[in-house]
From TrEMBL:
Source organism of this protein record: Chryseobacterium ginsengisoli
Stated name of the protein: Ferric iron uptake transcriptional regulator
Pfam families assigned to the protein according to its UniProt record, in alphabetical order: FUR (PF01475)
The encoding gene: fur
InterPro entries named in the record: FUR, WH-like_DNA-bd_sf, WH_DNA-bd_sf
Length: 127
């Protein structure tokens, strides 16, 4: 059964694609205003994760952030990279280098959540 592409889904997807950083459900809610309710945003974001369109990042604040995936699919959805949160501006970015974590024999990795806090290149210019 094919999933319907609704106007709401397209609004959320366009917002994620246009964002240069990972965004929370709350950020999307502020951006979309009253056009889309909170529960719908949450449901659509989770379905996008299942479909390999976005990946979910657990921030150091306990909130989930969502970043648009490049070169992912539902069958191959792996993000073994660090995420960086700027302590000044608050943006969360996916860092480009993949991380290869060597696990003990017999262990198999499913997810990876590496998180680094510091100052982005724009904010660190003020130091």
């Amino acid at each position: 059964m094919a999933k319907r592409n609704t106007i709401t889904k397209q609004l959320i997807l366009d917002s994620l694609k246009n964002s240069k950083t990972a965004v929370s459900q709350e950020i999307l809610q502020k951006e979309l205003g009253e056009a889309v309710d909170r529960a719908t945003i949450y449901r659509v974001l989770n379905s996008f994760c299942e479909d390999g369109i976005v990946h979910k990042i657990l921030g150091d604040d306990g909130k989930f952030y969502f970043a648009f995936c490049i070169n992912c699919s539902e069958k191959k959805h792996q993000h073994n990279h660090f995420h960086f949160k700027c302590l000044t501006c608050g943006k969360i970015e996916c860092l480009p280098n993949e991380v290869d974590v060597k696990l003990p024999e017999g262990y198999q990795s499913v997810t990876f959540n590496g998180f680094i806090s510091g100052y982005c290149k724009d904010c660190s210019k003020s130091f």
